[in-house]
Here is the input.
Amino acid sequence: MKPGHVHITEDCRVISDVLARVGDKWTVLVVGYLGSGPMRFTELKNTVGGISQKMLTATLRGLERDGFVTRTVFPTIPPRVDYELTDMGKDLLAPVRALGDWARRNAVRINDARQRFDDMAP
Here is the structure.
């Protein structure tokens, strides 16, 4: 392998790993909504359309594990659990919002391109 090649390969692995977390649709939506402030699990589930309880749990656990979200349990009956962005999670808001804005601005163009492509298929 060429001398600089190992560094590039390691960078690609790191970038791929991070993008796997922050680039999935549920993460983008959850981080976007938590950008407004702390939310309870049920509130998030009702706000993030179409997400299952299992997927929301997995997404929140992954975000917590990676340091983007904190989980606070309040000793009430039933227990209240709030999720909130950490400083790193708040730092992620700018690119997440930019990606969301880009997607909204280009949705029609993308759908038109898909339709043209599909129309050419045999």
The chain has one domain: 25-120.
